[in-house]
Design the sequence.
């Protein structure tokens, strides 16, 4: 019996070691391949966008480039449809998701998140005919209104949870959802505050906005489960960049200035 228990324990240890070796290899893979592959879904202003010249730009992109530079490797953007972004990570198409992803319990069951690198919340893009009449998300909770958002996002979750009485239309991209508001086919769009703020500024007269967030949403970089070394690296990178001022410089470029708007396709 004793020998059998020892054999079982040894087998369990070997299995645990082999699983650890299989999972905790992201940093090694980055080093060996000479590249940091970062997944995102381009179109989420100002986090990741496609510029007129075909390059990807944005807050997450600049942070990813800085991360790769400090690692001594090449930054490789991996543009991925949002509904496939976690599977892309889990099948090794990228090393990390840097995509303005809200940390949620359901997502955390599939991936691990580093410490939040920015906090946002849901805001409202309005058709201008409702300006001054709809003052908060609560006013939209009626069958009289049609609300749009992007499929598979926290915006969609907020609509389904808080605006159950409203008609809801889901779209593949945030831009398509916003255009519904511009064209009068939707009364409002619920989505992350940075996007709503920038889009409303671009479409003055065609839209209005309620920018005070009505949810609390920390955004985090995601990696495969079972990789504490990569999580440790990401958390220390974040602390370092916030401490040395480089994070703030990148933040100011994308959130406190609109100079980049002319580059966007």
Sequence:
């Amino acid at each position: 019996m004793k020998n059998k228990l020892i054999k079982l324990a040894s087998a369990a240890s070997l299995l645990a070691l082999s699983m650890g070796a299989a999972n905790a290899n992201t940093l090694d893979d980055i080093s060996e391949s000479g590249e940091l592959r970062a997944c995102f879904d381009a179109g989420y202003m100002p986090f990741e966008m496609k510029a007129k010249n075909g390059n990807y730009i944005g807050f997450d992109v600049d942070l990813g480039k800085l991360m790769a530079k400090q690692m001594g490797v090449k930054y490789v953007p991996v543009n991925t449809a949002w509904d496939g972004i976690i599977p892309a990570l889990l099948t090794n198409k990228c090393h990390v998701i840097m995509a303005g992803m809200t940390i949620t319990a359901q997502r955390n069951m599939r991936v691990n998140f580093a410490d939040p690198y920015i906090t946002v919340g849901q805001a409202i893009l309005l058709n201008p005919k409702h300006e001054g009449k709809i003052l908060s998300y609560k006013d939209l909770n009626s069958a009289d209104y049609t609300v749009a958002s992007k499929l598979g996002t926290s915006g969609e979750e907020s609509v389904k949870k808080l605006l159950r009485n409203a008609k809801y239309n889901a779209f593949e991209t945030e831009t398509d959802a916003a255009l519904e508001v511009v064209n009068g086919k939707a009364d409002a769009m619920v989505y992350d505050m940075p996007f709503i703020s920038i889009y409303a500024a671009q479409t003055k007269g065609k839209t209005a906005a309620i920018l005070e967030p009505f949810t609390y949403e920390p955004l985090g970089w995601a990696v495969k489960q079972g990789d504490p070394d990569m999580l440790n690296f990401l958390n220390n990178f974040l602390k370092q960049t916030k401490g040395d001022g480089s994070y703030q410089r990148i933040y100011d470029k994308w959130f406190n200035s609109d100079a980049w708007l002319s580059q966007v396709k």
Observations:
- The chain has a mean pLDDT of 90.
- The first strand starts at residue 35 and ends at 40.
